[in-house]
Amino acid sequence: MIDEVNDACKKLNKGLGVPVSPPNPGEKALGRASAVNVVLGIGLVAVGALSSLKWCAVLGVAAIGSSAVMTWESKRRRDD
After folding, report:
1. Cα 20 from Cα 34, distance rounded (Å)
2. What are phi and psi of 46, to 5 degrees?
3. How confident is the model at residue 64 (pLDDT cuts 50, 70, 90)?
4. Cα 73 from Cα 64, distance rounded (Å)
């Protein structure tokens, strides 16, 4: 998924004449980012559940979902 997004961004940048290349994270970087997102997501869900800040719970669920996608992408890169 990251490769497809990077390819689309490269085409857009080339069409606009912008000399910017998107980052291409490796398996280890994706794994670390996934772990951080899970920890932050659990913390945000806990804060949202224990307080009246329900947006924290929503943001926490989004962070946990993001972590799942990064884990999937990391495994996909390992298999390639």
Report:
1. 25
2. -65, -45
3. very high
4. 14
> CA 31 to CA 25: how far, in whole Å?
10
Residue 19 tokens read as: 């000399």
Fill in the amino acid letter for 56: C
pLDDT of residue 52: 92
Give the span between the Cα atoms of 77 and 3, in whole angstroms.
Answer: 10
Rounded CA separation 41/6 (Å): 26
pLDDT in tens, 15-56: 898 888 878 888 888 889 999 999 999 999 999 999 999 999
Give residue 42's identity as a one-letter amino acid code: I
